[in-house]
Amino acid sequence: MGIITALIALSVLIIIHELGHFLMAKAVGIKVLEFSLFMGPKIFSFKKGETVYSLRLIPMGGFVRMEGEEESSNDPRAYSNQPVGKRALVIAAGPVMNLVAAFVFAIIVISNSGFHTNTISEFFTDSVIEKAGAEVGDKFISYGGRRLFDPVTDLSIFMYGEDGSERELIYYDVSENKTVTKIITPGRTETRFRLGFTARVEDGKGTNVIDMIETDSPLVKAGIKRGDRIIKLDDTEVSSVPDIQNYLNIARADKSAPLIITVERNGKVLTFENIKPFSDFQYTLAVNLEYKKGNFFEVMGASFKYCVSTARNVLITLKWLFNGTISIKELSGPVGIIGAVGSVVETQKSFSQIILNLIYISSFISINLGIMNLVPFPALDGSMLLILLIEKIRGKPIPQEKVGMISFVGFILLMGVLVITLFNDIPRWLL
Predict the structure, then answer these.
(1) Domain residue limits, the chain
(2) Fold classification of 115-189+283-328 (topology level)
(3) Among 288, 327, 303, which Cα is nearest to 160's?
(4) Theoretical Cys-Cys bridge with 342: which of 2, 7, 184, 417, CB 3.0 to 4.6 Å?
């Protein structure tokens, strides 16, 4: 059920993307030959005006086929015979439609669940923000030269990419009614020990059931799988994420010693020995931010900021991928997306919570889909926009065979990326 729901959700986002191309093509007068829901063999179709509307067998995505899109045409309304501006509008409309849909989804979620503001509500032990002079009630503006839009998400991303260097902190001092700029060094948590898995969440709490395993986790090497329920660490029974964290980081005398892990799998109890946990730390600002439910205008503002924040974080992640901050092993693809969406459906008990979480993750994926399609990578919409820009500058179109070659090379590269993500995602979600 979870996988089917995930496929449908992902297809809806792709259809929204194609609907953007379709509506803009119609709006600027380009002849659209077919608009299809899903892919593969045609189940049925009907023609309205000049356009065939079809439903196909494989429930994944869809497409728009325009006159003169892939071949030359003498029709004056063909895509290939339109000015650069009209063609650019049609190409850009797909990603833009995804971003608009993400904004609408975000409004639905945030109006129900609330949102974090930039107002400081609490300091934790040894907070570098508190030491810098900030007080509860002051408002974050930026960190490390980056403005905070969706503050908790932004800070978690920024901390992930930290290297311990000095950073510029800007906040608004409410009592003094002024903006304050400080240079700080982010703090560090104590060394923590972990097993490299994400737990299944039920009723908002982390259980002892493994939902996803990191590819280099010691659990993978030992033969522990997704869906296993961890019932003992050494001789200590555990039933939740806090139990597991407490044993790994507090209760054990020698925290770096290998573990004996007992799991329950399909009603059978299995024991795995000599499993050595990871040890690492996190950078932190040790601060908590206000969480609230707002009025209509505050919800609209928070939804817009969420979309801007997520879009920026996609670009930051791409930068980190190229400069080595994150490994290509951390990339996720269609299997990972389906696994994540399916997990939302399988682990939530309340139907309303399932729908809300599904809308939330759809908003996140839709932003990623929109931004990634605007990247000028061969075979993506962004590369076509770049080709149109070059055409505008040089005053004549690039030969169609060269455009086709660029698209072919891009397709091969995308298939390579897909293979990499499959090797990353299959151990996480299917093993």
Answers:
(1) 2-111+362-429, 115-189+283-328, 192-279
(2) Pdz3 Domain (2.30.42)
(3) 327
(4) 2
Does CATH place domain 192-279 in 2.30.42.10?
yes
Residues in the chain: 431
Tokens 């407490």 -> residue? 246
Check if the beta carbon of residue 270 is closer than 8 Å to that of residue 235.
Answer: no
* Prediction pTM value: 0.83
Closest CA to 73 of 32, 45, 19: 32
What are 394-415's pLDDT values in tens digits? Answer: 988 877 777 777 777 777 777 7
- pLDDT tens for each residue of 61-107: 789 999 988 777 889 999 989 999 999 999 999 999 999 999 999 99
**Domains 115-189+283-328 and 192-279 are alike in CATH topology:** yes
**pLDDT tens for residues 29-67?**
999 999 998 888 999 999 999 999 999 988 777 899 999
